[in-house]
Design a protein that fits this description.
It is a single chain. By secondary structure, this protein is α+β, with helices and mostly antiparallel strands. It is built from 3 helices and 4 strands, in the order ββααββα. β1 and β2 form a beta hairpin. The radius of gyration is 12 Å and the shape is globular.
């Protein structure tokens, strides 16, 4: 897990596998959400992709995922 710290903010970025575990879904579901542009990676450099779980939760809730953890 990658982390960025500043004096006011601490953001943890997670992999696709970690995000799938957080939401209790499969890796392919997370890839589907990304392909459908429901969620977007916060960091994508080369083949390295990381997500902010709180941002993903907000986006999924906006999309209609009312039963998210």
């Amino acid at each position: 897990m990658s982390e960025i710290n500043s004096s006011t903010t601490s953001i943890k970025f997670v992999t696709i596998d970690e995000l799938a575990s957080i939401f209790g879904v499969s890796r392919s579901t997370v890839k589907n959400w990304r392909a459908r542009r429901i969620i977007k990676p916060c960091i994508a450099i080369g083949g390295v992709v990381r997500f902010d779980p709180s941002e993903c939760k907000r986006k999924l809730a906006d999309f209609g995922g009312s039963s998210l953890k």
